[in-house]
Design goal:
The chain is mainly beta. The chain is 11% helix and 35% strand.
């Protein structure tokens, strides 16, 4: 017997027992839920609002965890209407560098000034890199397929006679000659990496030390707050260091939930990273950030955030107080859930002097916030290799309606061209935008 027939077959006393058992189990579940909520509320109460003064002089006010409920607010992409572009400050011109692309995610400027764009996504990824030849007189650049049949490519690098690409499952190296339009020869896998991951943590970036002696590779976490166990996070939430052939790999910096943008500050020897922080602690926790990266530095994840603020979701028997005490306070807060991904220091000369040496950050935009945030490029001023002020809006207008999660596009990678103009990859809009100083 199954279903209702089976239930009736137990007789009146048996049915009564089953009903009482169901009521008891339901009551127990509700009691457990209430206890868990009380534990959450207690954890939030133990962590009042905190003000951290960062190296940039920016005052960062952190609300207690769960001050607002966690929401899912994924954006709807409307696409760009004809003639409409993002908006830059007065004195700049915004124009299309290339369009009709499928998920242009990351940009890299080759030694000869040509531009590579990695076309990739977390699903139905194009899995290729295209090359744009710069042309005289501002004409539309000519496009070639530079490298295809990849696995969610992201970071790119030319070092010596090799071209490197960071796929989601590892770094590959190919023979390369300056100026070539296509990679034809076979490559070699030099550094396997853990693939996939929480939400969008499939991206792997790569950069080299100034003297070319070391490579640095980013790997985001495989979860939100290690909810599957820290053993699942092997080699994750880290910046890795290795030799140019992939040997000698070690963890350079850890506790970085999802480090993506990497760059060296002009005139300094410090590595900087744009980092995506954790979700589901409320609208304004935890801020994404831009930070200097110290050798062997620990930045909190998953045990603490923005310094030594303990994540209340980590069970007491899983906490690591010694790591919490070591947690480095990031330099610049970039707003919670802004998905700050792109990073490029301005090394050009055509923008006004105040932009010299500063950092541009592409913010892909929120999904875990009741009011959308991000969806713009911000600028962080630097002086003598250090941030000298809070972030400010630079390229906006990606949101179709600021009160709704409806957008025209989503900025990601940023890069500086030899002429000093700034490129911005818009993966959702299928466009690469160019921002140049208006010299009229």
């Amino acid at each position: 017997m199954t279903g209702w027939s089976a239930f009736c077959g137990y007789g009146s006393m048996g049915r009564k027992y089953i009903i009482l058992l169901i009521i008891a189990l339901t009551t127990a579940c509700k009691g457990r839920e209430k206890q868990q909520q009380q534990e959450v509320d207690s954890a939030a109460a133990r962590q009042p609002a905190v003000v951290d003064s960062t190296a940039s002089g920016q005052a960062v006010k952190l609300p207690p965890p769960f001050a607002t409920r966690s929401v899912k607010n994924h954006p709807k992409v409307a696409g760009w209407p004809p003639g409409k572009t993002p908006v830059a400050p007065k004195g700049f011109v915004v124009e299309k560098f290339a369009d009709g692309l499928k998920s242009p995610r990351w940009l890299y400027v080759l030694p000869n000034g040509d531009v590579l764009a990695a076309l990739a996504d977390k699903s139905k990824s194009p899995n290729m890199i295209v090359l744009f030849h710069l042309t005289e007189g501002g004409a539309a650049p000519r496009k070639d397929i530079f490298l295809s049949h990849l696995n969610q490519p992201f970071g790119m690098l030319v070092l010596g006679e090799h071209f490197y690409v960071a796929n989601t499952d590892g770094v590959w190296r190919y023979p390369y000659r300056n100026g070539q339009s296509k990679i034809a020869g076979p490559g070699e896998s030099i550094l396997p990496l853990p693939e996939a991951g929480y939400n969008n943590h499939w991206t792997r970036n790569i950069i080299s030390k100034a003297d070319g002696s070391k490579l640095y590779v980013t790997v985001g976490s495989g979860s939100n707050n290690a909810e599957h166990g820290i053993e699942y996070e092997k080699l994750r939430a880290n910046i890795l260091e290795c030799n140019p052939d992939g040997s000698g790999m070690r963890v350079y910096a850890s506790g970085l939930r999802n480090p993506i943008g990497l760059a060296w500050a002009p005139g300094a020897t410090m590595l900087w990273a744009a980092v995506n922080e954790r979700d589901e602690l409320g609208d304004d926790l935890v801020p994404d950030y831009l930070t200097h990266v110290e050798d062997s530095g620990f930045y909190g994840w998953p045990y603490a955030y923005f310094g030594q603020n303990v994540d209340p979701r980590i069970p007491a028997d899983k906490q690591k107080p010694e790591l919490v005490k070591r947690s480095i306070v990031p330099d610049v807060a970039l707003g919670a859930h802004t998905a700050s991904i792109g990073l490029a220091f301005y090394t050009g000369k055509s923008f006004p002097a105040r932009y010299q040496g500063g950092a541009f950050v592409g913010q892909h935009g929120s999904w875990n916030r009741s009011v959308p945030a991000g969806y713009k490029v911000v600028f962080v001023p630097f002086r003598n290799g250090k941030p000298s002020g809070p972030p400010e809006e630079f390229l906006t207008g990606f949101m179709a309606d600021p009160t709704k999660p409806e957008v025209y596009g989503r900025p990601v990678g940023v890069a500086v061209l030899p002429d000093g103009s700034l490129l911005v990859a818009d993966d959702a809009g299928g466009v690469i935008w160019r921002v140049r100083a208006d010299n009229k």
